[in-house]
Amino acid sequence: MTKLPVVKGPQVIRALRKLDFEVIRTKGSHRFLKHADGRCTVVPVHRGESIGRGLLAQILRDCEITADDLKKLL
To answer: Which of 8, 22, 51, 67 has the largest CB neighbor count within 10 A?
Structure first.
């Protein structure tokens, strides 16, 4: 299994936008992203904080991408 990178919320959002995900709404510090085929996820954007391993793994599962795919997009 590939080790997950340490990333912050804005980095994840930029990477997902390259895969045609769009921010559909914002609630507080959370961005809701959706793809045209129906996949969706929520990414927290907290200043100065990186996303935890467990949450990042859940985001990747929601988006149906692998850690290697994410690393290539960063």
So the answer is: 51
